[in-house]
Amino acid sequence: MLKRIISFKAAEIFLFSWLFTTFAIAQPVTPFNAATLIKPGDEVRYGSYLIRKIGDRVFQINDPGDKSTKGGGWGVDMYLVCGTKKAMMIDLGNDYITGYEKDLLRPRQNAVEELLSVIDGLAGKLPLDIAVTHMHPDHDGMADAFLDRKVTFWAGEGEDLNALKTQHNLDTAIYQVFTQGKKSFDLGNGRIVETFLVRGHSNGGTVYLIKKDMLVFSGDALGSGFGQAFSTVEKLKQIAGDSKKLVEYIKANYTPYERYGLRVYTGHWWQNAFGGFLHPNQSLVDVGYLDWRFIQDVATCANGILQGKWLVDGSGVRYIGNMAYTDAWPSAEGRAIMVYGIGTIIIPLRIAYEAAGLKMPE
If you count DSSP H runs as helices and E runs as strands, how many of each does the chain have, helices first? Predict the structure, then answer.
């Protein structure tokens, strides 16, 4: 009799544990409703995300982040562009399915269901392409959510696909590789997404341009409002050369009206409010997106460092001090902050001197 009671209690405990786990992990979610996203600038919160309409059937899916984490956990953005024939998702944010230990990211309840509901609510039944700007854990994190769907994953040539395995334990074969400049995505009704290679932050970083809408999605390739960090002469030369080519390409293929109207959406919207880390005595500037000036200023800053222009009065390139430590960007601590206009490059000062072919003062 005692054995039967113990057995019954064990079964009861098991059942309670199973029910608790099931309800904690897989609660039904209320379907995402996009009805309030009528005009550009409209936004709505849904689960972990803030969804903002930034164009005609173009949306920013913002993860507001958590300051108790590190790196990309402080906030990251995905973008969804819908055409008449298909939809395209640019970047996949942080991994909230299993979490990401290096950035102190924990799994989130209903992470898969929430993201899929947003995409379904915005794109409907359109076929979906998913393309990343680069294979860093805060930009390729939610690939797992789409594995049971008929989507096509894309990454630019030069990116380290093995990162999928090491970061998220996913098969690298799920991604197709394209050559930047040769591959474009036709979403229908003249909405064509062009691709452009900008290395430095990664070896195959891709910038996506939509001329019809005067939109640029740059990921981390050009940095955000407070810049991008480079640790070697080689990487500085890559960003300098590729960003200059991007400027030349836009000048050659966009009219003045078109390029003056460009809106640049980066991988980390919260960083657009330049100030803060770079200028601790300066109030943050309220900037929702960047522009053509930003692209030019980043290129000018990077190339100016190669020419030693921070040492030339009146050149416009300025060395304004060294980066303080922050959990959002721990690797940049102590590096020199070089600024031209609103373009910023964070680089070890000795590397800047080396890149310019100059001897660093003792």
Answer: 7, 18
